[in-house]
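@channel anyone free to eyeball this complex?
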Amino acid sequence: MNLNLLSLNRREFLKGSAAASAVLAMPAILPSRLFGQTAPSRQITVGFIGVGNIAQGHMDTLLGFNDVKILAVSDVDRAHREAAVRKINGSYQNGDCAQYGDFREMVARRDLDAVWVCTPDHWHALAAIAAIRAGKDVYVEKPLTLTIREGRELVNAARQFKRIAQTGTQQRSSKRFHDTAEFIRNDGLGKLERIEVLIPANNKYCGATWTAEPVPAGLDWDMWLGPAPWSPFTRQGCHYNFRFNLDYAAGQVTNWGVHYIDIAQWALGMDESGPLEIEGHGEFPGTGLFSTATKVDFTCRYASGVMLRCHTRYDGVGDGNVRFFGEKGWVDVSRSASTASNPALLKEINARAGSLKIAASSNHHDNFLSCIRSRARPISDVETGHRTTTVCNLGNIAMQLGRKVRWNPEREEFIDDPIANRMRHRSMRAPWSLV
Amino acid sequence: MVANAEPAQRPAMEAKLLEALTRPGVTDVGRLFVCRMLSLIGSARCVPVLAPLLANPATADAARYALDGIPEPAVDEAYRGALATLSGSAKIGLIGSMALRGDRQASPALLAIQQNPAESAEVRAAAARALGRINAST
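replying in thread with the prediction:
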């Protein structure tokens, strides 16, 4: 192995060692120049749709990759896109990064290979589908889409146009989660009985006292709303806080729940399927700006008989976790730790002795970039992202309806429940459409 | 919430919601709220009340909110009827709804729009996409 950092390219470096993975966890502080230059013709060219809060980490990471070049950003907030351009041009030490207020102009560029979709959730499907139709591969932040139908449309578009589509459920690229899921798939706990997913309580609150405000200069509010119903601007409902308005997102169920339900789906081998029954009893605000559940509690039953319960935690921990219960005890995994009813189970997880090996990735961004080159399916392929997001949406629908719903995961239809079926999709404000 | 009302209660709820839409002075916000409730429980009974709203660009979105999810031919008929009255953004939105509903009977009208040089490029492109979707589903 070549250990000369000045001549090693990023991909060779990635193959090398655990130390390499550790370094790549902090790529923003290790400029790609340390690894030598990649010929421009071999660079993957990238554009961003949405460069607010969640995009920052992606940009930092990609700016550390020498085989990636960020050429353009788009955002409806001028302040966001100007800050992004400053960051990108500062890193590249040039003035090349272009900025757009309308992502459609950006995705029309022929010189972009891939697009990162980092908008609020209600824009994910439309932005990603537009990029796919324009021939771009897409990395779509989680949750994949706002509604179940949007998710299916996005999967169909990716397949039709033969585009690589990675979902931002990056825990699949973490060894801790991977090994636990593989352990469960290999019946490491014996017969699996149930799964419990804990998600944080809402971290933002807004009561009934909010008022409409003038739209700040530089913010295209009509475009920010896009397909969502028209609503007056209020600062408390816009950046970040959109997560707690059902018109734009689905609350902590998709903000955090999607990460941990994703690991449960993986462990269950349900990447192209889902539960059969869902029942929930959430609490939703009756007044005020926010409308997503303040208390989440729903349970899914899978064909295997396994029950998955997702509910809000009230211990102040700002992370989720997923705990698997089986004949031999329980194992629990979160971003910070793995625990088990018996320490021997953790050793078994680390040993990876099971004969069934599931796909592995040590870096979510690199996995996507590698797949752009190989045209292989990424670790969080759009179908798996859609199926995981669907479980979240099924839970939200069941909680809103307050009754058990039955789901056909093959047809992606509720059984004998026309109202629930209507909740799979929402009409879009003109001129936006999934078609 | 109307969604978790008993099925037997829904017709009366629907009637009240439709009646609210016909009251003088109904606000844009109020109309949108009512139409979103109807999107969950609305039936073919919505069509006569909402068809006039479809024809008005200012209220077409709200009408589509209520009608898009109603699996009744009367809705498709109302959409085809509104197609000639709308233009611009509202027309593109309507065409998108027709495409998602897979209304095969809309194909001739959509083809005419696609081929009509008097229509805007955006409207013609929307018609082309809709035709592609509808034809692919046949």
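from a first look: Confidence is low (pLDDT under 50) at residues 1-35 of chain A.
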